[in-house]
Predict the structure.
Amino acid sequence: MKTFIGNGTGAAESAVNQALQGLDSPSAIIFIAPYGALEVAARIIRERFPDTPSIGTIGTKFHNGIVGDTNIVVLGFFEDAKVSCGVMEHIDLYPAVSIRKVEKSIAEIAPGKDNSVCVEFCTCAEEMLVTTLFLALQPKGIPMIGGSAFGAPDGKASIVACNGKVYENACVYALIKNTTGRIRVYKENIYSKASDQCYYATKVDTKRKALIQIDNRPAADVYSEALNVRKENIIGNVLQNPIGRVVGDQVFISSMKEMGANGELVNFKQINRNDCIYFLKRDDYDQIEKETRRQIQADAHRISLVISVDCIYRYLLYQQEHYLDTYRKDMAALGNWVGVVTGGEQFNNQHVNQTMVCAVFED
């Protein structure tokens, strides 16, 4: 599958023009820009390619081994990829209103077996969003990866873009069909259970994503005792020991955001009442990274593109551990690679934290 990756630096207009240099007749575009440049990038891309669908998000980005915060990266697809892009608005209240739009996009690409994926970027309401999208995608066997837009200044709403317009309180998506090979998705978790002790969420506030009580005791008290971490250090300990929510036979990470006065833990991923949860520990991430790449290479006949979504907490951990250079070089060795750092990740029907998800395209 043919793709184009462009990069631009400097002022917004100059950066997007640099990133588009050499791109001719794309069938679709996905782009990543700094918060202050997203609107300019969306407008110029629409003006340059008025009939080409596009989606964009904000954040730190990876492209072929390079990491950047202030640059603009453009990913272009061509005639061997069938792509339909769209936007779901007001997702904090009624994302289901957009389900017909998503179903129309699915019909437009006519997905086959193992050759399609949904890539999405959203600004909020992740749990409702993934449930809604899964209703449309699952019957067609289409996997999904995505990320929560990250990088808005304090006090500003997160934003995404679709077909030249910028949106708050929205999800933008690209339904992509690879006509030359398969597409597979992967989820990488560098944490495991700190012990086999399962705890239960007995009091929660799902609207605030607050875990109030575990086994009928203040959540912070239980966390502190289980891990021997002082309560005032719990939030700062998130890179070492996040919380895991059990869904089926898998554990999905929920990162602690802040602690309330009564020992409640407000998280970035919703935990529901009666959920089984575990406290997690950091594993040998270098070995896990190697195994993920080994599996990807074993599965794919020839890799034409990798699109990844990485949590900001993984990014910060790898920076702290001086591992980021190793990570970016090793991921780039897989082939053409575009990635974005996000505030949360989506994988099929789950919203997760501190995780890497990716879609791998074959030639």
Remarks:
- The two ends are 5 Å apart (CA to CA).
- Helices lie at 12-20, 38-48, 99-109, 126-137, 219-227, 285-299, 312-320, 324-332.
